Amino acid sequence: MKSFFQKQTEECQVHGGHAKKANGALLVMVFASLALIIWHVWVYGTSGKVVKFENSSNSFPLLIVNEIWDLLFNKRGVVPELWEVFPYFIVGILLAGYLRTYKIAVKLQASLRKYGVLSIFIASFVGIITPLCACGTLTTAISLLFAGLPLAPVMSLMITSSLLSPSTYLVTLNDLGPEWTVIRTIAALFMGVFAGLVTQFLRTRGFETKNLFIEGAITRGDFHDEDYPDERLRCNCKQKFGNRVAVRTDNKFLIFLAKSSEMLWMVGKYIIVGVVMGAIVERYMPTGWVYRFFGQKDPLNIVWVTMVSVPMFLHQLSASSILAHVKGALDGTLDGGAALAFMIGGPVTAVPTMILFWTIFKKRVFALYMFVCLGGTILIAYTFQAFVFVPGVDTGNELLRGVSQLSGGKSAVLAKQGSNVRMVMDPGGKGLIATFRNELDGQGGVVFDAGYERFLAASSDMHDNRKYFVNAAKWLRDNSDAQARPDILVYDISSGRHEVLSKMALADFDRAGFKVKIVKKGDAEKITSASLANYGQLWLVFSGDSRLADSEFKAVSQFNGDGKGMLIVAGAGSQAAEPLMGVNQLSAKYGVTFSGNADSRGEISVGMASRIFANASEVLGKFLKIVHKA
């Protein structure tokens, strides 16, 4: 048994000893990170507070200890991040061990090579259904490259694996909706194909498989198998634990465990250092620098966000959750191109991946990887910006699901003032539709729409208005008290000169399970808490300066406070004194104000591909759930 763990004393004549340059580079990074922490605490104090240490009651060494402890163990610290990456890393190690034990890499090499350029597309697809991030995929990729597989399909596999997996798909579906999920899937596939084709084009220009690795990094000391296609690596020495086990037993499971264990520290050290550095960069980089780029309609936002995402250790599972929070922080709608650049550029340039590439591969391979990551991110983000995303539209919002166009016309302008408000549409920078959610206080959801004319019976059947109405009812149902009834009371407080909601719109509500009753102010008594008790939603239609009576205002406030949903509609303001004060008396409670005038003319584009994305998402969701369970 002792011989299993005792290394060969003589140096392998084929591979030589382990190179010390890689470990030295890692130590430099560790000391540089520690120096950054010390400098930050000296200048700004702990946890980013602008308080110099001499003003604190604690000693400077104790402040350093507290800062490092918080860096390691807070919710977004190093240890939780390592715990999140650990399962993917282990799966990658085990897959690599399996490949080496059963010589699968050689079989994959022959299989992919016979497909030529088509292997790039196959590898890209395999990458998005592989439950691995870049950290786990790298271990497998190295084994494939050692077996002689061309770099092009391996590059495609690494790119797509870092961008998407079955788990990430489902998380994105929850955070951002089906449209964003399909967009992310298509973008990941395009990135993989782009990376593979560029690499394939350069294959004879210094990117042959045998010329990829730094001498002494891995290829001359970490894998000693006797049947590698590359004769430089073919060796029968017993310097490695896996080979010593293989000589003494035919048990494939034991050999598999031994060969897998060889890679634990080899790759694990890069991941540990990479996570630490990524946490430090994210902790000390002002978040305002990133957030402000997601809402500004600057044509260069995609470039800036791509570049800023590079030093961030952004895991694919975290990107969609972060963007969901960014949406709520913006005064307007999210810049779709910048958001897509964030979801692509961050994960593919994760710090552990960069460290591994820089230390193991030759610098031209590192440069190629950075080029396809940055160039591909910018190219794909601008392509989607031009052909998919609609400016001023919150892509993937549930209110707009399956909606391609809404009727325009004259409207008021919404302004967001509360943190619980999310802008849904602001064409031309003028707020048109917004939502409010505050589950902590038990309030029901609220939808605000400044397009009064859209709700008139004469306009209800135009474009996709009816689909939008039903979506609004479903959103209010899902974001309100679960015990609320499905009945909707539409209270028309406008002038009464026009009917609201067409018969076909009412029929659509009925098919969706909602019973709608329309009441005009003046045709019935004032609404009270008792009269609202039988309804789960209240839709209030204002126009001009119409307003609720004081008793009605109290009843409506109590209705929403009990967890029931509301939709507040108002039209363009008048030139009279205190325009739209009636609706603002109510809407201001939720952090939204109506004011001014806007004219969207005949129609408002929401997204021509919205229905396609929604349908495709359902199909992909079912497929990836099966893969995830497997």
TrEMBL record:
Location relative to the cell: Cell membrane
Transmembrane among keywords: yes
GO cellular component terms, semicolon-separated: plasma membrane
Membrane spanning stretches: 25-45, 85-105, 117-145, 151-170, 182-202, 263-281, 302-326, 338-361, 368-390
Membrane association type: Multi-pass membrane protein
Keywords, in A-Z order: Cell membrane, Membrane, Transmembrane, Transmembrane helix
Chief place where the protein resides: membrane
InterPro entries linked to this entry: DUF318 (IPR005524), UPF0718 (IPR052923)
Family statement drawn from the similarity comment of this UniProt entry: Belongs to the UPF0718 family.
Protein name: Permease
Annotated organism of origin: Geoanaerobacter pelophilus
